[in-house]
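Blinded run. Sample ID left blank on purpose so nobody reads anything into the name before looking at the predicted structure. Input follows.
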Amino acid sequence: MIQRHSSTVSQRVQWVSQLLAAAGSYGMVSQMSRQEAVSRQTLYSWKAKGLSGLQAALQPSQAVTRRTVALERAVLTLLVEGHASYRGIQVCLQELLGLHVSLGTITAIVQKAGQRAQDWLGQQGTEQGRVLALDEQYSSKRGEAYLNVVDVHSGQVWATLPSVAVDGESWTLVLWYLQEQGIVCRGTVSDGGRAIADALQTTPASQTYQRDVWHILHLAAQVQARLERVVQQEEDRWLVIERQEQQQAISGSRAAGRPAKTTSSQQEQWLIQLHRLLDAVRYLFAQLRELLEVVVLSGKKEPRVVGYHSRLSEVQTVVDLLEEAMQSVPTALQKEVQRVSKQVRLALPALLSFAEQVEAVQQEAIAQLGEAAVGLIGWAWQRRAILAEQPDDLLEAMAPAWREPASCLLEAWSWAVRASSAVENWHSILRPHLAVHRSLSAGLLALLAIWHNHSVATRGLHRGQSPLMRSGMSPQSHDWLEALGYPAEGTLCLLESPVDPQLELALAA
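Blinded prediction complete.
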């Protein structure tokens, strides 16, 4: 049975202190062993424990630093990846890891990381010209919105600003800020907002402006769907009127229910007019969708690529025919169709800016290969999903004399910009965070932008690439937290031992 020494803790502290103070003095251990009736081995053991305890207390602990980084990474990961609120982060840390972290500590971590993210975002720059998608995401405050600028081809977020007034001055400041940052804008695309248009008139970014095609086509689809519902309702009403007239003819008395305002023949004539309008709208909207494609071909047996000026005149013809077709219907239906024709007229010629940019490349290819060859290349481009997944595969199937001009054509068509989908995708990322936090600060917006720019796609066309990689940049790490100064080595220490209460106080300070 092990016999414990009868000394108290305070006595042992005093003895160990004397031994550490008299380190190097000969005979000190033997003398204390005789006086206090303690074996020399026990004194040496206490001395070693006391020395290690002092070193651990006085020397900066690497474990505490690692736990600090681990806690910060956990908080930021729950914030961005988990769409959690500050209280949600607090609950998750308590339930999953047994850590009680105050809201003040969480707020301090987020604010510190947000400042780092803003500094990182402000250092982004590129010497290559970029096509930028501009758009606002409206906040809960009337007349204010978050202003976002995203690279069309890579999806990289160049700027995202907290809620400000939506006007030309705000957008002008954003474009000037990007210019000072060293970002060369060789083109812009937006949904046609007035504030963006005012800003583009006073900055060099207006040299090549593309009006978003998707918004026009979406509006056309909505109008067509409304017309189809109106026609269906009138057809159902016609059946009711016919049934009432038949019952009245059989019984000789008025049928039960509210009497119809029109006769069956009048309703039939009205349906004929509606069907004419609907058929015209379906055909003209289909023509509009086709004319807004990247490549438009004329002819069926020997297709030819339609040039920019021909395409522009055909779009104007479509609008004229729309306005002519709606003259024979009531004002309510005229306003529905007029919404589309008005938007198309206002958007021209910026709606076809992408076609104007590829026009020079198409004409050069026609001069080298001829219209029939370029038409055939365009026909293959329209069916590239069936013929080949990559443009290089299409080139391999062509004659060697065609490959160089065809390569320029395929590259121009691939890089043609028609929509601001990149910034709309960014809005879909911000939307759940807006629902959680009600409003987004500049720091939180910067954190989300850094996370998005470093995110590597796990599937789809850009699988294995992040927006930074698609922009031609080579990030040192794909870990967005590591890019902000939070290395990943500390994550394991968080699970090994609980956080020191003094560490939480230090973080809160």
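Unblinding after everyone has recorded impressions. The first helix runs from residue 9 to 21.
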